[in-house]
Structure prediction request, 107 residues.
Amino acid sequence: ERLIGFCDDFLRLPLKKATHRRGVGPSYASAMAAAHFMALIPVVDRRILNGAVAHGAELDFRVNSNGQVVDIEDHFGPLVRYCHEVLTANPTRTLRELDYKLFVVPI
Prediction:
């Protein structure tokens, strides 16, 4: 839960006026965090969320007219919990392997 709290704070940095940078949003922030902590933090984007739902995750999200997930930063905690559940059940799988499995599911 502490990891989720730290990551939630990090993913919300692009949404704050003082730390906003054009072209950087919560999904990009999650990709940067995942690149630095590959075994610990999943990427949260529409493809991963879609793949998780296709594999049985109970995640409820909406997309806008461009197909982007609305308030994607709100879905990080539930996604981490889902990944933890899957990896606990499959201890030989890595988080990067799970990320890939979820990413390649057609939208």
Residues 91 and 104 are 21 Å apart (CA to CA). The mean pLDDT is 93.
